[in-house]
Each structure stands twice: as C-alpha cells, then as structure tokens.
Write a structure and sequence with these properties.
Strand order of the largest sheet: 3-2-1-6-9-11
Distance between the termini: 22 Å
Strand content: 15-25%
Order of helices and strands: HHHEHEEEEEEEHEEE
Largest sheet: 6 strands, mixed
Mean pLDDT: 94
Number of helices: 5
Helix content: 25-40%
Number of strands: 11
Length: about 180
C-alpha cells in the first residue's frame, strides 16, 4: 500500500473504536511510556495535544504537568513553534487543534524527549504522518530521543520512506514496546 492507502486504512480502523477502548488503550500505552528510561530521565518533554482520532494525551499531560516541563507544538505557517503547556493558555489553532497561546517560544535544543504523533509506525520506527511534513522539519533539528505512541493496529508491516523522513527511536502501543 502507498501512504495514501495506509492513511485511509488507519482512519477506518480508528472509526471502529469505542470510547472505552480508546481510554484503555491510552492508559496502557502511556503506562508503558512512563517505564522508559528516556521518559524517566527527561525534564523537558515535547508532547502533542491529541486530536479525537489519536491516542489521547490529555490525561497524561495533566498528570505530568507540574512534575516535568511539558511543551506542545503550535503551527506557525509551515513550521511548528514549541511553547510551554499551560492549561489556561490554550486555544484552537490550525487544523482545529488545541494549541498553546502566547509568545514564550522555546528552542528545540531545550527539549530532552519528543513524543511524536503519527498515523502509523513500522518496527523500524519509520513514521507515517498526516502528510504535511511539520514533524519531519522539527525532528531533523533535534538530537533528543523520539518516541511514537500509537494504537496496536497502527503498527504497520512497512512504511514507504523518503530521504527527509525521520524515524523514531522507540514505538509504544498499548501492548508492546519496540
């Protein structure tokens, strides 16, 4: 399958999930993430504020906000800015995604761990994004460990890659860590 077909397949699988399945999957995947030394050692973590069809990060962000420095991306034209998470300073941004507001942009080199959203990953850490290239541009600027967190069915056999694609170091699903 090409990237377009893979995205269509994953969207159809996501549509089949019930709310309890989504909640259990997020709880299990993020419990595994908490066991990873890269997470335990990092103080400055870039996460994403999940869309309704993504493995939900909302409870995880709330649980760790105040214990670690949590940052979220904000779309700025064709790139992503990184801002500290503040629950009182969130607004709807590009693509109807909740994003941080304000002007306290931090450099990517402050980030010690990046949790990367995706439509899918393969066992080599290759990422299937939504097709806009925002994260590829950001990830190539960072030497921080990169972890993808997805539903089990988003773990694909193989993802077609291009030279600019940046793989993650670890992939976590609700049932396994690769």
């Amino acid at each position: 399958m090409d990237k377009k077909e893979l995205r269509k397949y994953i969207r159809s699988k996501k549509a089949e999930l019930s709310e309890p399945q989504k909640i259990d999957a997020a709880r299990n995947a993020f419990a595994l993430l908490e066991q990873v030394s890269e997470f335990q050692d990092a103080e400055h973590i870039l996460l994403y504020y999940s869309l309704p069809d993504e493995l939900s990060t909302h409870s995880f962000i709330e649980r760790w906000h105040g214990k670690k420095h949590i940052y979220l991306p904000r779309v700025n034209g064709s790139t992503l800015d990184i801002l500290p998470y503040n629950p009182e300073a969130m607004g709807e941004g590009a693509y109807n995604i909740e994003e941080p507001t304000g002007s306290d942009i931090v450099p990517i080199d402050r980030i010690e761990l990046i949790i990367v959203p995706a439509m899918g990953y393969d066992r080599k850490g290759n990422r299937l994004g939504r097709g806009k290239g925002y994260y590829d541009q950001l990830l190539c600027q960072s030497h921080a460990p990169k972890i993808g967190v997805i539903y089990d069915f988003q773990l694909l056999e193989e993802i077609p890659t291009e030279p600019h694609d940046i793989p993650v170091d670890i992939v976590i699903t609700p049932t396994q860590m690769i």
